[in-house]
UniProtKB/TrEMBL annotation:
GO annotation, cellular component aspect: nucleus
Keyword Repeat (UniProt): yes
Superkingdom of source: Eukaryota
Annotated Myb-like domain residues: 3-55, 56-106
HTH myb-type domain sequence ranges: 3-55, 56-110
Signal sequence region: none
Gene3D superfamilies, sorted: Homeodomain-like (1.10.10.60)
Subcellular location: Nucleus
Name assigned to this protein: Uncharacterized protein
Keywords carried by this UniProt record: DNA-binding, Nucleus, Repeat, Transcription, Transcription regulation
Molecular function in Gene Ontology: DNA-binding transcription factor activity; sequence-specific DNA binding
Length: 118
């Protein structure tokens, strides 16, 4: 891969299918070797992040429920910005998704309620 130019930018559905197939075949490990075997021209890090944040079969897609939102608020008060730790309490949600949800929605609501600036 060192001689070839690494592909960057948005992922295509065909690439997602190829990555999913190779992960099913080889497993979720050694992402650099997996990236080379897939022939996608992507880095191992890019493949790992795509799998972890978008393609894993056990991920929940869609809106965060009110119960999940309350739990995020509660755990954030308890642990602060420990997104990975919070994500472990919300099966199917990624730390990145929770962090983005906090920064885009919950933080403002929390501030508006007069509970302090975070």
């Amino acid at each position: 891969m060192q001689d070839q130019k690494m592909r960057k930018g948005p992922w295509f559905e065909e690439e997602d299918q190829r990555l999913t197939a190779i992960v099913r075949l080889l497993g979720e490990r050694r992402w650099d070797a997996l990236a080379n075997a897939s022939g996608l021209g992507r880095s191992g890090k890019s493949c790992r992040l795509r799998w972890m944040n978008y393609l894993r079969p056990n991920l929940k897609h869609g809106r965060i429920s009110e119960d999940e939102e309350k739990l995020i608020l509660q755990l954030h008060q308890q642990w602060g910005n420990k997104w990975s730790r919070i994500a472990r309490k919300l099966p199917g949600r990624t730390d990145n998704e929770i962090k983005n949800y906090w920064r885009s929605r919950l933080r403002r609501e929390y501030q508006v309620q007069g509970q302090g600036i975070i």
